[in-house]
């Protein structure tokens, strides 16, 4: 399941859809890592519930209502972020990265470790990034920021999205922009949520 974008991209570009294991433990660790993270993904609604419950313990009753309102959307946002990464960003990013350069000069021999790490990292990062509108709404509701401050900080938000795109992804400019673009769009969605519910 996790290797599917890699295999399909390799096949689509005419490469043999096989990943290379460079160390004796690579294949074993690939299965352990993937099964562990898929378990976390399936359990994410429960994990998020316990995180919100921990936060809710320190809140006033009025603020707790916001947590109970936000929690289901938080779980759905995380899952949407993972699905967006898996079906859009990872596939497009891999296609760009695999097709870049000359095959006669540099031969593509994708390894299990790096490729699965790329898919997993992008999925988790996008799952977390998709929480941004809800975090903004929560911060606005408890009075940490105002809608006016968020609207006035658009330039800094855009710069922050680009910087985070550089930090959280690989050195490819395409994948950096593919993360920065949705992140900024989520900032604007968060701003709209704050205006509607603020």
General description of the model:
With 198 residues, the protein is mainly alpha-helical. It is built from 9 helices and no strands. The mean pLDDT is 84.
Low-confidence stretches: none
Strand content: under 5%
Secondary-structure element order, as H and E? Answer: HHHHHHHHH
How many strand units?
0
Q: Which bin fits the share of residues in helices?
A: over 70%
Mean pLDDT: 84
Coarse morphology = globular
| Rg value | 20 Å
N- and C-termini, Cα separation: 41 Å
Q: Which sheet architecture does the biggest sheet show? A: none
Number of helices: 9
Helix and strand content put the structural class at mainly alpha
List the helices and strands and how they pair.
Blueprint: H1 4-12, H2 26-42, H3 44-56, H4 61-99, H5 112-129, H6 132-141, H7 147-152, H8 154-168, H9 173-197
Short description:
The protein has 198 residues and is mainly alpha-helical. The chain has 9 helices and no strands.
Descriptors:
single chain; 198 residues; mainly alpha; 9 helices; 77% helix; globular
């Amino acid at each position: 399941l996790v290797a599917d974008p890699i295999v399909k991209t390799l096949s689509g570009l005419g490469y043999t859809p096989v990943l290379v294991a460079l160390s004796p433990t690579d294949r074993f660790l690939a299965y352990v890592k993937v099964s562990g993270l898929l378990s976390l993904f399936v359990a994410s609604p429960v994990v998020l519930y316990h995180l919100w419950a921990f936060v809710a313990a320190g809140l006033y009753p009025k603020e707790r209502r916001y947590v109970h309102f936000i929690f289901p959307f938080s779980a759905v946002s995380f899952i949407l972020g993972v699905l967006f990464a898996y079906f859009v960003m990872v596939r497009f990013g891999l296609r760009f990265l695999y097709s870049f350069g000359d095959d006669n000069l540099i031969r593509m021999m994708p390894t299990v470790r790096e490729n699965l790490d790329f898919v997993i990292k992008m999925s988790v990062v996008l799952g977390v990034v998709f929480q941004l509108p809800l975090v903004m709404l929560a911060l606005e509701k408890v009075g940490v920021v105002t809608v006016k401050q968020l609207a006035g900080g658009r330039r800094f938000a855009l710069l922050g999205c680009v910087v985070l795109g550089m930090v959280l992804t690989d050195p490819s400019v395409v994948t950096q922009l593919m993360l920065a673009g949705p992140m900024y769009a989520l900032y604007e969605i968060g701003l709209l949520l704050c205006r509607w519910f603020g």
